[in-house]
């Protein structure tokens, strides 16, 4: 059990620096015909050497057997109990694209999708349409109006977009319209509580108009919405842990999550090289850096084992550049597992390493699921990652006399 409230009491401001690299969805399963996970199959000499000089283990993102979304699994790594701080995906996406949310706004993450002539979903991501096509479609949808709400739309990358519904007395207590599977119809927005009934009705009116507007488009001829939510109250990492944190992430959802917990969002490019260069440029300015690597997750969701291996190897090539900065603490882990075999997030624990001058390296020779399972940290909650980082950075005072 991790007592975050105690950690908050013990935090102290120091000059030491923490770098937390979250390689999204890095965990996996043995792949058919290969017998190893993508991380174990990848040639990662730098991560292997780092693991041998680090404390290693496996982290449980939320709880045993629970498959987490990216929001709760990241929150845990940042020191927030995901079971106490439930945050809708829409809020994270909206903040990630720079939208400012009011107290009664309801935000949702949108996907363009493909449906057949019977309205059955054939592709939940509309073939990952080009971002330019996304912008064109969003521009057209902005002209759709529904009496009683203002609808604010912002395109994201590829098939993703953000929808914010603004009006009086709105509630985000609404079920997703995304069934999460092909072969099914998009769902209606269904209220989870009586207070959300009017909001759901207004959103369904908007969706009906969108369906008509996209009827002749292909492959993006329908939309799916999920993660309906309003803006929550949550303390910043500066308030809770006395950190001056910054985020280096290219995808809006992760920038939104970082912004929600008070991180400064550093502008960066789309590649791992860009992100490492951004880290170098700003290394003197902050004492906590969150660096996000996305394409391991995307390739796992696509079932592309070879691509996931390639992304892991690419990240490995930049590990020496991060170490050259001499952070006092370096963590490399993932927010969750995304096995290519499963083509989605899974409940499996995630490889974790922490490197500092205060760790006890014990027998781990490679950075992978099997080796980390034998590491001296064992299997522990992701919520323990930040306390370990703070302790190794000497940012926690002594408890008791």
Shape: globular
Level of helix content? 25-40%
Largest sheet: 8 strands, mixed
Spatial ordering of strands, largest sheet: 9-8-10-1-11-12-2-13
Number of strands: 13
Word description of this protein:
With 401 residues, the chain is an alpha/beta fold. The chain has 2 domains: 7-86 and 234-392, 3-Layer(aba) Sandwich (Alkaline Phosphatase, subunit A), CATH 3.40.720; 92-229, no CATH class. It is 32% helix and 18% strand. The chain is built from 14 helices and 13 strands. It has helices at residues 4-10, 38-41, 45-52, 70-77, 89-96, 131-141, 197-213, 237-241, 252-260, 272-282, 295-301, 305-323, 369-373, 385-392; strands spanning 18-23, 55-60, 106-115, 121-123, 150-155, 160-166, 222-229, 245-248, 264-265, 288-293, 329-333, 350-355, 378-381. The strands form 2 sheets. The chain has an 8-stranded mixed β-sheet, sandwiched between helices. Strands 3, 4, 5, 6 and 7 form a 5-stranded antiparallel β-sheet that branches. A hairpin with a 5-residue loop joins strand 3 (106-115) and strand 4. Helix 10 (272-282) packs parallel to helix 12 (305-323). The chain is globular. The model has no long low-confidence stretch (mean pLDDT 95).
């Amino acid at each position: 059990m991790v007592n975050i409230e105690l950690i908050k009491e013990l935090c102290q401001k120091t000059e030491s620096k923490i770098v937390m690299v979250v390689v999204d969805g890095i965990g996996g399963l043995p792949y058919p015909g290969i017998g190893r996970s993508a991380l174990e199959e990848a040639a990662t000499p730098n991560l292997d050497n780092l693991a041998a000089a680090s404390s290693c283990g496996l982290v449980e993102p939320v709880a045993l057997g629970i498959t987490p979304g990216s929001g709760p699994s990241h929150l845990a790594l940042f020191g927030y109990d995901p079971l106490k701080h439930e945050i809708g995906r829409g809020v994270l996406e909206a903040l990630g694209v720079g939208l400012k949310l009011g107290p009664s706004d309801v935000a949702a993450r949108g996907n363009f999708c493909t449906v057949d002539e019977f309205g059955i979903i054939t592709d939940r991501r509309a073939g990952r349409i080009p971002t330019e096509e996304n912008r064109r479609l969003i521009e057209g949808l902005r002209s759709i109006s529904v009496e009683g709400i203002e609808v604010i739309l912002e395109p994201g990358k590829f098939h993703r977009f953000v929808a914010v519904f603004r009006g009086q007395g709105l509630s985000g207590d609404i079920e997703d319209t995304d069934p999460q599977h092909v072969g099914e119809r998009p769902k209606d927005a269904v209220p989870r509580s009586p207070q959300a009934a009017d909001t759901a009705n207004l959103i369904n009116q908007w969706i009906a108009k969108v369906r008509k507007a996209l009827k002749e488009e292909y492959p993006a001829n329908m939309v799916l919405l999920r993660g309906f939510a309003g803006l929550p109250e949550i303390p910043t990492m500066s308030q809770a842990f006395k950190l001056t944190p910054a985020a280096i992430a290219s995808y809006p959802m992760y920038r939104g999550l970082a912004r929600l917990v008070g991180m400064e969002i550093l502008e960066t490019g789309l590649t791992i090289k860009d992100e490492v260069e951004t880290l170098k440029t700003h290394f003197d300015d902050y004492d906590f850096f969150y660096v996000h690597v996305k394409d391991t997750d995307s390739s796992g969701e696509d079932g592309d084992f070879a691509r996931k291996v390639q992304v892991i190897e690419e990240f490995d090539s930049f590990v020496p550049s991060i170490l050259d900065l001499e952070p006092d603490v370096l963590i490399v882990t993932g927010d969750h597992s995304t096995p290519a075999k499963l083509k989605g997030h899974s409940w499996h624990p995630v490889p974790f390493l922490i490197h500092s001058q205060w760790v006890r390296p014990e027998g781990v020779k490679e950075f992978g699921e099997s080796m980390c399972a034998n590491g001296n940290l064992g299997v522990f909650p992701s919520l323990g990652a930040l306390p370990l980082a703070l302790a190794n950075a000497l940012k926690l005072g002594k408890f008791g006399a």
